């Protein structure tokens, strides 16, 4: 993802003040960043790993740098990050997926769920497919889709990963998410409503990572000069 973001930044006329490679450890990351003056950085784009994201975000917000984060799998710490952002009067932008197409898919998913609440004979489930290097499962995008379904289907109160706990999967109050890791797949997400007589399915297929990278760069451009916590709904609403 970093290479795609870097390419788009340069194409859009931006300068890259610093870069942290995936193989660098957390200590090295912050040593590199410490060499940058606060005024050298307008915004930080953070795509790392669930293990290092919170530390990276905390460091950057503490330095007064706006952060655009695309790392998933760390959201149990989101409340503390938002509190730090408010304390420092900083700016933080998070999305589970920065693709414009995926965010339109999020909206389509909610509209379909609104219709389906009147048809309880249909069982909703999801499948997400990603490359073998993706560490977290289910994907953040799949979780966002499940949350969108739960907003409009009152009998669905939680999501569960397929195969993680069969007792939960059998429960009628859970949205089941199947996660598959295959080759170099950028990301495929399917929402399925199945009944005894037919099946309704919507799907988003990413052909490359360019759409994710472009969305992150556009979010970074938008975030500069703002204060608060934001997401794709804020960006797309303008």
Low-pLDDT windows of residues: none
Q: Under CATH, the topology of the largest domain is which?
A: Rossmann fold
Give helix and strand order, one letter per element, not per position. Answer: HHEHEHEHEHEHEEEHEH
Summed over residues and divided by their number, the pLDDT gives a mean of 91
- Within CATH, the superfamily of the largest domain carries the name NAD(P)-binding Rossmann-like Domain
Major sheet: size, sense and barrel closure?
A: 5 strands, mixed
The helix count comes to 9
Number of domains: 2
Spatial strand sequence of the major β-sheet = 5-6-4-7-8
Corresponding CATH architecture of the largest domain: 3-Layer(aba) Sandwich
The termini sit apart by 26 Å
Radius of gyration, taken over Cα atoms and rounded to an integer in Å: 19 Å
Helix vs. strand class: alpha/beta
- CA-based shape: elongated
Please bin the fraction of helical residues: 25-40%
The CATH class designation of the largest domain is Alpha Beta
Provide the β-strand percentage band.
15-25%
Number of strands: 9
Q: How would you describe the overall organization of this protein?
A:
The chain is α/β, with parallel strands linked by helices. The chain has helices spanning 2-11, 26-34, 53-62, 78-87, 100-116, 140-152, 166-169, 210-223, 232-236, and strands at residues 44-46, 67-69, 91-94, 123-130, 158-161, 174-181, 188-194, 199-205, 228-230. It has two domains: 2-98 and 210-236, Rossmann fold; 100-205, Dihydrodipicolinate Reductase, domain 2 (2-Layer Sandwich). A five-stranded mixed β-sheet has the order 5-6-4-7-8. A four-stranded parallel β-sheet has the order 1-2-3-9, sandwiched between helices. Helix 3 (53-62) links the parallel strand 1 and strand 2. The longest helix is centred in the middle third of the chain and has 17 residues, at 100-116. The chain starts with a helix and ends with a helix. 31% of the residues are buried. The mean pLDDT is 91.
